[in-house]
Amino acid sequence: MHLRVGTRGSKLALAQADTVIRRLAELDIKAERVILTTQGDTTTGVPLHEIGGQGVFVRALDDAILAGGIDCAVHSMKDIPAFRPSGLLTAAVLTRDSPADYLAYPSTLDDVRVIGTSSTRRRAQLLRHDPDLTIRDLRGNVDTRIRKMHAGEYDAIVLAKAGLERLAMQIPGEPLPPEKFVPSPNQGTIAIVGKADPSVMEVLSALDDQKTRTDVAIERAVMEQVGGGCFTPIGIYCKAGRLIAEVLSLDGKRTERIDTKVDSIENARAQGRILREKAQDLILEAHTVLKVPL
Fold this sequence. Notes:
9 helices; about 35% helix; about 25% strand
């Protein structure tokens, strides 16, 4: 079998696709990269929530799979929306890398006053930690973000630690503990999406890590019940059955949080409903301020 593996063209996306292709080669499966451009790559001058959130990085690849142009696509799993087109399946979830955010800064932590991030979650969590910080919007690939930091536009930037590791990049800074700076659901996880074709699914399933799949399935079950889209500051993290999930106000001053053990997807859904009920006002407020319909 020869697989066409779709990916975005950023360095990080290519590195992730190459990881999958190497793993397939170890199984004597030939695969080639097919690079596609998404709306998230071409529209960089506005905040991410204004063009549809993280899902804009996925749609073009979904369409290419359904049209038969590629056999599967490699994604950062946190970018995959909760609701998926009919006919597509998550064929494999690779062993999770670090779920943590990474605060990169070229000088010292004491000098950090202006931080760049496009994430409403990261913005709210940073402001909760230190309300005197100035958080400015920052889009672009990893190289662009680092260049802007070194140019003095920001004292620090927030990146996913897993992304830096996949790019073999070492920059000064420190990881943020995921128990306090709760990451986006599925952060640090690579997923392979394909059409519901048994022959393709069988091949790709050999790359699946069941422990990671269970953790991220719990996170996604909570995410689906909480709702709020990618516009509300939401962090959800599960490891070996311990679930931490929180919804924050945009300014980080208010938080609704759960920290509990879960032993099933149904239990995770129940916890998600509890959190949504507690955080209803925060979700509505975020959508009202950002002018995004629920």
